[in-house]
UniProtKB/TrEMBL annotation:
The lineage of its organism: Eukaryota, Fungi, Dikarya, Ascomycota, Pezizomycotina. It is found in: Nucleus. Keywords: Hydrolase, Metal-binding, Nuclease, Nucleotide-binding, Nucleus, RNA-binding. Its cofactor is a divalent metal cation. One of its GO terms (biological process) is NAD-cap decapping. It comes from Coniella lustricola. The keyword Transmembrane helix does not apply. It catalyses: a 5'-end NAD(+)-phospho-ribonucleoside in mRNA + H2O = a 5'-end phospho-ribonucleoside in mRNA + NAD(+) + H(+); a 5'-end (N(7)-methyl 5'-triphosphoguanosine)-ribonucleoside-ribonucleotide in mRNA + H2O = a (N(7)-methyl 5'-triphosphoguanosine)-nucleoside + a 5'-end phospho-ribonucleoside in mRNA + H(+); a 5'-end triphospho-ribonucleoside in mRNA + H2O = a 5'-end phospho-ribonucleoside in mRNA + diphosphate + H(+). This is Decapping nuclease. Residues 55-393 form the RAI1-like domain.
Length: 422
């Protein structure tokens, strides 16, 4: 009996009965479904506090895509805002739309090239702890108030910095699924997507007003729409304790860039929305303002210009909105979202993320549609960096980390080369 009691008190724990999560932990690994690797979005109220510190976004570099979507360093594709003509049909020209092929996975390549160029000029690497596109951080910041759509991002750690890109395969699959859904609207889905690009064409010039012909200004409604060309700003910013390097498209500039790099730039973000004719319409617009605000906030865009259209796509009104005033305006009305909650959520999530992505390999950052949490786990690519980082960028960083040769060493090296010559 005593032996039996001892056996009951100290039963053997067969390894085969360990849960999958426990089994992975016993190997020093993290299971994808381990909830220690998920950040809870709910309850949102825990983020309702005074805003965490935010570093003002400062542009330190830029790049452009031309009319063929070829990459160029510099601001050659920057455009200038000029008030558009009203009562224009935003569907005009949809059949001639020159549309960017979104099926091509561009990764972070253009952003990495721009960072490389900047680092070669300065002789040191940027101090960012996270490098990504503006759109990825927008997904994080909007999470407390947006759960209809899920997202999947890929990430990798290199030289103590997390590089994040969109999971292109997930995005393509989401678009295919959306295309299968029956469309009940009177206006085709493709036309409504086109309206935003048409408004950008109506509201911008390729050069300052004084250098643009009258014929071009007055003929913008007939100008072909092309979304291949883009101007992208690269900024240093920060949310909470995390320093960010973000790249993102900017629609237009109000006047001109300041001479001193890092000074605030009077950028303009262009958006379209349905006319507001009822409280229901306003509530819908207020919810859209959340992403409008986040996108502009992250790149330091001070002004958003909204083109209000009829249900049939006729441009009826243009309204200027100051980015910094949006959260206060929302708080005085329906309080459908809170800017401080967005900032604090992003600050806490990014700080947590930096503790989870702690070695190389390709990691997945995932939120399922409607889920109250964001999961983080390593994919089957356990080593390396996948296609997130280019070989060119890695080689550049390795070279940059090598100690610089002194003038005396360089002179000695040159002498040795001369001596070896016949």
């Amino acid at each position: 009996m005593k032996r039996l009691s001892r056996r009951l008190r100290s039963p053997a724990a067969p390894r085969q009965f360990l849960s999958p999560i426990a089994l992975w932990k016993s190997r020093g690994q993290k299971h994808p479904n381990d909830m220690d690797s998920a950040f809870s979005i709910q309850p949102v109220g825990r983020f309702a506090r005074p805003s965490e510190a935010v570093k003002r976004p400062k542009e330190f570099a830029c790049f452009s895509y031309d009319d063929e979507h070829k990459f160029h360093l510099g601001d050659r594709s920057m455009r200038w805002y000029y008030t558009p003509e009203l009562d224009v049909d935003l569907s005009k020209g949809v059949d001639q739309f020159v549309k960017h092929d979104s099926s091509v996975d561009e990764h972070l390549d253009s952003l990495l090239k721009t960072i490389m160029h900047h680092e070669k000029q300065t002789g040191k690497k940027i101090d960012a702890q996270v490098v990504t596109w503006r759109g990825c951080v927008t997904k994080f910041m909007a999470s407390p108030f947006e759960d209809r759509d899920g997202f999947e991002l890929n990430a990798t750690l290199y030289q103590d910095c997390i590089f994040i890109e969109e999971n292109h395969a997930y995005r393509m699959e989401s678009e295919r699924e959306q295309a299968k859904q029956p469309w009940r609207g009177r206006i085709p889905r493709e036309h409504m997507t086109f309206w935003g690009y048409k408004f950008e064409t109506l509201a911008t010039l390729p050069a300052p007003w004084g250098k643009t012909s009258r014929e071009y200004i007055e003929g913008r409604k007939d100008e072909p729409v092309n979304n291949l060309a883009q101007y992208c700003s690269v900024v240093r910013t920060g949310v909470g304790n995390t320093v960010l390097c973000l790249g993102g498209e900017v629609d237009a500039i109000w006047d001109s860039k300041p001479r001193k790099q890092g000074d605030a730039i009077r950028w303009v973000e262009l958006k379209t929305s349905a006319e507001i004719n009822s409280d229901k319409d306003y509530s819908f617009f207020e919810r859209k303002l959340c992403k409008f605000w986040i996108q502009s906030f992250l790149l330091g865009v001070p002004k958003i210009i909204v083109g209000f259209r009829s249900r049939d796509g006729i441009l009826r009104k243009v309204e200027e909105i100051n980015t910094e005033e949006i959260p206060a305006t929302v708080s005085r009305r329906n309080r459908s979202w809170d800017g401080n909650v967005c900032i604090n959520f992003a600050a806490d999530f990014l700080q947590w993320l930096r503790t989870k992505i702690d070695d190389e390999g390709v990691w997945r950052i995932r939120r399922r549609a409607g889920s109250p949490q964001i999961e983080v786990f390593k994919t089957s690519e356990d080593t390396g960096h996948g296609r997130i980082l280019t070989d060119e960028f890695i080689n550049h960083r390795i070279k940059l980390s090598l100690p610089a040769a002194s003038p005396a060493q360089e002179e000695k090296s040159q002498e040795e080369v001369v001596e070896k010559e016949p």
